[in-house]
Amino acid sequence: MKSADERIEQTAMQIKAGKYPREGLSFIAHIKGLFGQRLWFYNKTASYSDKLKISDLCVGCGLCSQNCPMGNIKIEDNKATAGGRCTMCYRCISLCPKQAITLIGEKVQEQCRYEKYIT
C-alpha cells in the first residue's frame, strides 16, 4: 500500500495535469460518511465552536469566510470573527495565508495543501 504522502503527490500531479478527482467516492462511501461523520458527530462538534481562535495575524482577506460551508466566519472591521456553527472542517485553517486561525492549540504548526506536493 502506498503511503499517504505518495497518494497525495499522485493526486496533486493529476490536478496539475487538469484531471480532477471525482466528487465523492462511491455510494457505500457516501453512506459511511453519512452515518460515520454527519450523524455520529453532529452534536459532538458543538463544543468546539467556541474554541475556534482567530489571532491578530488576521489581515481580513476573507478566504476563510468565503470557503466556510457553515457561513460561520464573517469579516468585521477587516478581521475574521467566528460564530457558533463550526463543524471542524478545517477549511479556514488550511486556507488562511497568515496562519491566523486555529481550533486546537495556540497556533497552527503546518498547513498541508496539494500545492506542497507539486514540484
Task: Describe it.
The protein is 30% helix and 10% strand. With 119 residues, it is α+β, with helices and mostly antiparallel strands. It folds into two domains: 40 residues, no CATH class; 62 residues, Alpha-Beta Plaits, CATH 3.30.70.20. The protein has a two-stranded antiparallel ribbon. A hairpin with a 2-residue loop joins β2 and β3. The chain starts with a helix and ends in a 17-residue tail after the last strand.
Structural features:
4 strands, single chain, 119 residues, globular, Alpha-Beta Plaits
CATH topology of the largest domain: Alpha-Beta Plaits
Which residues form runs of ≥5 with pLDDT under 50? none
Taking Cα atoms only, what radius of gyration do you get, to the nearest Å? 16 Å
At the first level of CATH, the class of the largest domain is: Alpha Beta
SSE class: alpha+beta
Query: What's the arrangement of strands in the largest beta sheet?
Result: 1-4
Strand fraction equals 5-15%
Q: Give the overall pLDDT as a whole number.
A: 80
CATH architecture of the largest domain: 2-Layer Sandwich
Q: How would you sum up the major sheet?
A: 2 strands, antiparallel
Q: Helix share of residues?
A: 25-40%
Number of strands: 4
Helix and strand pattern? HHEHEEHE
